Structures are given as C-alpha cells and as structure tokens.
Amino acid sequence: MDKIRVGMIGLGARGMGLLKGVILHMKDVEVVAVCDKYEDRCDEAAGAVAETGIARPFATLDYRELLALKNIDAVVIGASWADHAEVAIAAMEAGIYTACEVGGAYSVQECWRLVETYERTRVPVMIMENCCYGRDEMMVLNMVKQGLFGEIVHCAGGYHHDLRDEIAYGRENRHYRLDNYIHRNCENYPTHEIGPIARVLNINHGNRMVSLVSMASKSKGMQEYIRNQKSNDTELMQTEFMQGDIVTTIIKCAHGETITITLDTTLPRYYSRGFTVRGTKGMYIEENQSIFMDGTHDELHFDWKEQWGNVEQFREQYDHPVWKKFMQEGVKGGHGGMDWLVFADFFDCVRKGTNTPLDVYDMATWMCISTLSEESIALGGHPVAIPDFTNGKWITR
C-alpha cells in the first residue's frame, strides 16, 4: 500500500504527542480519522493534520464510529488505561490492525478477552512499549543473545518518575492518573520495565513468568505535595490516596530467574527505569551506565566507582543493528527515538500483513501484573499465580 490510513483514538497528552511528534512525520502514513471524548482535543488533532497539507480527517467523540469507517488500515489507541482493552478488542473485531499504548490491566478477565479476541479474529494487536526500543536496552539485549553476560539469573527495573504534579492536577488536565492513585494500590505501570526484561528472558518464547508477590509502602507523598503546593484545593486536601509511594514486586520465572520491579512515582527523585541484568559472566546497570564483566573488571571490585559510566566503551562492538542504522539515518521522534522505532515496526507489519513483534500474548502478560499486584498487596504480600496466556505454547513459540 502507498499510504497506511490511520485512525487515532485518545488524544490527551500521549496521543497528541504521538500524532504531532511521530505519526504526522511518517511519509507512508496518513491520518484519516481522529477520536476523543473531548471535542476540543478532536478539533486540535484534526487541525494539526490539516496543517500538513492533507485533507482534514473525520472527527468523532465515539470510537465506534471511527472503527466503522471503511478506509482505516490501522488504529492507534492512546486513551486512558481503563479504556485500552475495550477499544483494542473492538478494533480487532472490526478487522483493523491495532497499536495500543501501555498501562496496567484492571482484571485478568480483560487480558483473557484480548487473547481470545485475537485467537478468534487473527487481527494483530501490538502493545506499543517504546522502552523495548531504547538504545541501551537493545544493546544489552544484543549482548545477552551473544552470551556476553552468561546465563541470566536476575533482572530488575522500575518506573521511577516523579509524577506528583501530573497527579495533583489531574482534574484540571483531565488526566486519569489521579483517580487511579486515589482508588487503587498496585504496580500500576509495569510495562516500561517488564518489556525489555521480558525480551532478555525470552518470556512467552521459551520461558514464562509463573508467580509474583507485591508489597506497597504507606502513602504519604501525594498528601505532602498537595499540602505544600496545592493547599487551596480543599477536596484534594481531604483526600486519602490508596496508592503506596513505593511498590515492590518480585516475579519468579519458569526457568528459575527472578525479576524485581519497582513503582516509585510520588516521592521526590530523579528519573530512571533502573534496568539491570545479572548473569554468570557479568552485569549491566542503568543507574550508573555501567557494564561489569567477569575476568575483565574483577580487579576493580572495590574501586568500581572509577569505572562508572563505561557503557560507551561497548557501543561500537555491541550497539544493536537497528540502532546503528537509526544513528546513520538520523534519530527522530519522541523519547530519544524510541517512539519512532516502535511505530516504524508496527506500520511495517501493517504494510506487510504480518504479526507484530510485541503481540497480544505479551500485552496480556505484561498488563496483568497490575491487577495481580493489587491482589497480592491486598493479601499482605501473598504469592499470586501469573496465567499462561499462551496456553502452553510458550515452550515452543
């Protein structure tokens, strides 16, 4: 196809950012329809498309009207967390390739519905986990596949991002995080960290996650922030937040590996995803941009601070081929180029009519961590089984 005709569903900060920063700059993609439940967002998106010199797209407040159009090849879902599964299922049933933004699930049942809908319709859906396309994440994956770290034993990661301002002004900005932090206590945003780890550990492709335990700290960060920064908001001043400030989740895998992921979004801190890989021959740690190799760095065991930040020494030899090509062509798109790469992969699948690299089984497996962590926390850290959404196919996929 000369042009992939795309519908955008959900045009808040993320959806509009993708539209203006990525999709409108892709030469083989044309946005023909936009949808949001707020009319002003629809108007802004339609205007942004028209400013590129193409026809003003169809605009609607009802995503079902968009999915009923006959000229849509793919949809991009950037709506709220609670709407992802419902809209993705409807898009698959309409026979439309589906790109769905990230977030956690609200029930295991909705994850099964995603899988069952795909298996009935065979319409691909891709979870748009851009961190799987990060330069360091892909270089480390390349090193793991080449055996540089030996047998992988443990991985860690987290969503470490001070979101107090975004949460506190959720009403003003029509952002869904505020209600989630008031009413839920869970690992609410697991996919940024679990996505790259899942690729390292071959999850759903020869390995799987079998159980988890989660614990949450007390919730004090948002109350402190509102007291200091938004004390004129009488409603929020009296609100008790359910969401713990720090949520720690430990996952056990079928082949014995462990994973630790951490949610840390309501206390003052710097941004980090904490990506860490530990193997029998070495380790990678994002926090100080370091690689430690057995037999090479052993003499620095106690003086390792002098070697922190040595990742660039490995770049020329182990940079992932995707990123080598991307650097030569010129990095573009949001989040340091990750957004461009994940959407380039998705649209390439639409063009070729193939399945997506991050598929419905990945989507269900990664998203279900939220609702399972919620259950484990409510039970005082009780172990909870993680469903096998592949129904045993993970062994040979």
TrEMBL record:
S-adenosyl-L-methionine among keywords: no
Domain Gfo/Idh/MocA-like oxidoreductase N-terminal: 4-127
Domain Glycosyl hydrolase 109 C-terminal span(s) in chain numbering: 138-305
InterPro entries: Gfo/Idh/MocA-like_OxRdtase_N (IPR000683), Gfo/Idh/MocA_oxidrdct_glycsds (IPR050463), Glyco_hydro_109_C (IPR049303), NAD(P)-bd_dom_sf (IPR036291)
Gene Ontology terms, MF aspect: hydrolase activity, acting on glycosyl bonds; nucleotide binding
Matches recorded under SUPFAM superfamilies: NAD(P)-binding Rossmann-fold domains
Similarity annotation: Belongs to the Gfo/Idh/MocA family. Glycosyl hydrolase 109 subfamily.
UniProt name for this protein: Alpha-N-acetylgalactosaminidase
